[in-house]
Amino acid sequence: MSDLLPFFRAWVADPRRVSAISPSSPALAEMITSEISPTTGPVLELGPGTGVFTRALIARGLDEGELTLIEAGAEFARLLADRYPRARVFHTDATRLARSDLYPEHGLGAAISGLPLLSMRPRQVMGVLNGAFRYLGPDGAFYQFTYGPRCPVPIAIMNRMGLKSVRIGTIVRNVPPSSVYRISRIS
User: Is pLDDT at 59 greater than 60 in this prediction?
Assistant: First the structure.
């Protein structure tokens, strides 16, 4: 319940940026983090909001210090910094990741995204993916959930970037129901 008030305030302030009607459920958090373990390496989380996925990553045994959280909302960024003092929390726009020096190139094990890709322009989606894949190792994966019926990254962008997607599951115990996709490089 403690997440509802900050979530609601952020949604009222900018519903297009939040693009959800409620925080992600624990069931969705379990699914989106299901392929990540302490051996994965550092994890980048984009749009963590109140930290539902962050909690799931830590519950899976990831060290808080291995997490980098990118949050555009000032209130959420402050909340995350208070809750996860050993994580690296950046109050910034995830579409500009490629211009940052967050990690050495290919030094990241996985990226998890709570960003509303369906609400973004193609150039913004490419900015997010270019930034994440700049840091992801050769076997690293980008995990994205969506409320839509298919992967939220358009096929034209996937083809242009040499990426593929696989749906790893659907959660009906989320409001609204959601699917999770693993996006990775074509080998």
Answer: yes
